[in-house]
Amino acid sequence: MSNQKKTRVVVLYGGRSGEHEVSLRSAASVIQNLNPSRYEVIPVAIDKQGRWLLNDVQLILQSKESLPVYRDAPIVALPPHPGVTTTGLLRFGGSSAPQAPVDVVFPVIHGPLCEDGTIQGLLELADVPFVGCGVLASAVAMDKDCAKRLVREGGVPIVPFITLKPEVWRKEALFLSQRINDELGFPVFVKPANLGSSVGVHKVNQRKDLDAALQDAFRYDTKVLVEKAIRGREIELALLENSESGLPPHVSVPGEVIPSHEFYSYEAKYLDEKGAKLLIPAPLEPSQIKEAQKIAATAFELLGCEGMARIDLFLDQETGKFYFNEANTIPGFTSISMYPKMWEHSGIPYSQLLSRLIDLAILRHERKKSLVRDYSTQAES
Length: 381
Description:
The chain is an alpha+beta fold. The protein contains eleven helices and 17 strands. It has three domains: about 5-130, 3-Layer(aba) Sandwich (Rossmann fold); about 140-155 and about 230-365, D-amino Acid Aminotransferase, Chain A, domain 1, CATH 3.30.470.20; about 160-230, Dna Ligase, domain 1.
C-alpha cells in the first residue's frame, strides 16, 4: 500500500465572486480531510483579480479555518491537452516552464465565475476529471430564475416570483412595484439570480423599501428575483450521484435551518456563531421525509446534476406543502456546512465522502472519454 501511487488532487479555491471568503473556509476543511495516504494535494488559489496561484500545502495545513491566498505564489496555468495524456497538466510560469500531471480537480469555489459552469468548461477543454456537476447543470442551477422555471416544468412546485433587470426597473419602477404588490404581496424576498450564501439577499416587508433592496441586489447581478415570502421552514438535503450510471442519486436525511435572524442571511451563516440552529435530522414525519427526498432527487435529475448537489426546499407551515428553493452544485464544505454534516448523519463520514466524490469524477471522465468525438462515414467495402 505504501508504494501505491497517490492520486494528485488539485483543490481549487478562492475565485472572483462575492463568496470568495466562504470558499477559503470550505477549501480548508476539504484539504484537512482528504486522506493523505490516498491523495497528494496541490492547492491552487484564484485571487480576486482572477490569477491562478500555486500555494504551499504545508503552510495551508497550518491554517485551521480559512486558507490564505499568497499573492507572491507562482502563477499557474491549466492549458488544454486533450488526448495527449490520461491526466491534465498544470503549467507553472511561462510557456517553457515545467508541467505537472493532474489526476483530478476538486473545485471548492462558490458563486459566479466558477460554480456557474465557467470553470467546468475550462476543465472540460483541458480534458481533466473534476468533482461535481458539468457545464450545463452548473450554469442552470446557479441561475435561480432558470432553475426554478426548469423544475416547475418537471412538476416540482416553486414559490411565485418575478424576475427583474436593472435597466427595466429604472424605466418602469412604478408599474413593476405595483405588479409585485398585486401578484406577490408583501413581504417579499429580493435575491440576485446568480449568487449563493445569501449575498445581496433582502427581506422587504413594505413597498417603500423595495427600491433600496433592489439597488443593492443589482450591485451583485444583472438579474434579480423578487419572490413571495411564505412562512416556511428551511429544509435541506444532500445528494450524491449514484456510481451505477442511470440509477437515481443517493439522498441524505433532511436537515433544517432555524435562523435566529429574520432569515438565513450571510451574517447568520458565517459571521454570527449563534446565527442559526442546524437540526440534523430535521424533525419531520416519515411521510414528509419521503416526500422531501423524492422532490430533491427529482430536482437533481431535472437539472442534470452530476457528482453532488445540495437541494434546498421550503416547507410551508400553513399548508404543509414543499417548494423547491434552489440547488447548490458546489455546496459549502466548512466544518459547520450542512452538506457534509447531513452525509455524516446518513452514514458517510467527511473523509469518505470526499473520496467518493473524487472516484465519481474519475469514473465520469472515463465514461466521457469512451464517446466518439468525431464522425466519418464507413469506408466502402
